[in-house]
Structure formats: C-alpha cells, structure tokens
Amino acid sequence: MKKRIVLYKRLSEGLLAQLQAQVEVTWVDMAKPDGLARLRDALPGAHGLLGASLRLDSALLDLAPQLEVVASVSVGVDNYDINDLHRRGVMLTNTPDVLTETTADTGFALLLATARRVVELAGWVRDGHWQASLGPAHFGTDVHGKRLGIVGMGRIGEALARRGAAGFGMQVLYHSQRPKPQVEARYGARYCTLDALLGEADYVCLTVPLSASTEGLIGARELGLMKPEAILVNIARGRVVDEAALIKALRARRIRGAGLDVFVQEPLAQDSPLLQLDNVVATPHIGSATHETREAMARCAVDNLLAALSGQRPPNLVTPGYI
Ligand code: NAP
Asked: DSSP string of 21-67?
C-alpha cells in the first residue's frame, strides 16, 4: 500500500506526477480560508508532509501520529522545533545549495538598489519629476571598491563574498561562529568580531540562520556601531534584526539605508513605517524566488521525502540520529 503525504506547496506537473507515482497525495491550499482545517483533517493519516512557510507546532504534530518525515521546501528551518520532531522520531529535511546563488543574487540586487537609489529614483522618473539633470540630492554611493561585511559566512555568505570580491572589487570582511580559512584564501576575506565588522563595513549583509543565538543580533547598539553612510541588507530572517530599532535608525539617518527581503511579520503590513522611508528597499521575501530555483528546491524536497519514506537516509537530513 502506498504511503500518504500531505502537500501544502504547489508543485510543477512533472514533480507532482513523480510524487503521485509513489505516494498518495492530499493537496491542501493553505492560501484558502479553510486551508488549516483541511490540513488538520489530513494529518491523522499522513506519513509525510511537503511544503514551506508553515509553523508546524506541537498541536499540529499531535494530530499526525504516523508522521515519518517533514520535507521543507526551504533551507531555513526556523519554522520547526527540531528537538520536538526528533523526540517524535520525525525526520526533517531542507533544501540547501540549490538556492544559494539565487539568494546571493537577491542580496546583491538589494545592495545595489539601495546604494544607487534605484527604486526611489525609478519612481521619481515615473512620477514626472525628471525635468532637468540631477544634482547631489539624488546621487547614490559607490559599491565597487567598498567594504562588504558579511555576517554568517556559510553557503550564501560565501556566494556574496565571491560576487563582492570578483565582481565589484570589494574588500570582504566577515563574522561567523568560526573563521573560514578557505574563504579567506579565495576572496581575500578578513575575519572580524561582529562589532569590528559593523564599525568598518560600508555594506553589512546578514546571512545567518534564525536561531536563539541570532534573534535580535542587530539591535540599537549594533546599528549605533555602523557608519552613518553604511547600508544594511537583510536576506536572512526578519527577527535577526530588531525592526523597531532599525526604523528609528533609518528615520534619524543614523545609517544611510536598508535593503530588506525579510521582516518580523510577513507579509509586511501596509502601514509598516518601513514603507514610509525613502531609504528603504523592501522586497517580498524573494530570496530564492526564480522559476529555476523554486523548481530545483521542490525537486530536492521531493527527493528527500521519497528517500525517507522508502527507508533510505534523505540527502538533506536536518534532524540528527537517523539510519
Ligand atoms: P549556512 O550555510 O548554514 O550558513 C549560515 C552561516 O551562519 C554559518 O556559516 C554559520 O557559521 C553562521 N552563523 C550561525 N549562527 C551564527 C551566529 N550566532 N553568529 C555568527 N554567525 C553565525 O546557511 P545558508 O544556506 O547560507 O543560509 C543562511 C540563511 O539564509 C538560512 O538559514 C535562511 O534563514 C536564510 N535564507 C533566506 C532566503 C530568503 O528568501 N531571503 C533564502 C535562503 C536562505 P559557522 O559556519 O561558523 O557555524
């Protein structure tokens, strides 16, 4: 008998067919008003879950006594209580690597857009304000040759370092839990304490996972250490930054600007003060959102799920201690 899975992220026809050939699939559309109720109904029979952006709390897990694997279509696993899943004997898998380059592209897009005021000035042109040649009031700041500070030198951090060093001639500073000699050798990167990085970098890019040690990592004190001309780019998770402190710093022009892909509350509320600030570029969590990469992530999640349900070790196992 086929095992049963609940799918709560839309898949391409090819991937859905691959999945349906091996398991019985119940589709739940979480965007619909009855999405959560349908998920609850499907959980008791489920051996696997495949999706993203759902906080799988213990009340939901209690409804799924047969659950063997949760295949998340994301690299970040902050939506899950890994210890609780482990205790229940449920495997958790993620989708690293396949989204690294695309997410680093997003980081650089935000960095360039904020530094060169691309969104603000494109809106200005569209609104008919371009009547004469520009003066300093509309100038941006250079990116090439500046100091790029990367907080979290993992997969995405290294992809940013490569873009900065090779593409833009930037000096790379980084802070991580441990120094990375190979990154230093490849990109001339220099390891710093967080405080030293904040004080020296022209661009501070956050690429740490959200965890107990990174929640609120950048607060009022840390923003106060940044140079007044510096720009913060957050492609990690919203809660890595104290958003209220960031709004204060941006309003006071304590730092020059911020490029933000992630927020404490997503979707970002229309009345968020961040949307009133012309020194902010806000994107709707598009780090990995290209056709190619989202398909690759979904394929990776399907491979993880099918491996787990057939008794093999899934390629991207997050929970420890299986098989
Ligand atoms: P990764 O390879 O695990 O890299 C994360 C790095 O953060 C690691 O190198 C780790 O350092 C460092 N780190 C962890 N805790 C730290 C701390 N307290 N202080 C300093 N550094 C710390 O992960 P990744 O694939 O690059 O992804 C990183 C994160 O990006 C994901 O977890 C996710 O939240 C986010 N992300 C966002 C999007 C988006 O759509 N915006 C897309 C993809 C990923 P060590 O190696 O020294 O331990």
From this structure: HHEEEEE--TTSTTHHHHHHHHGGG-SEEEESS----HHHHHT-TT-
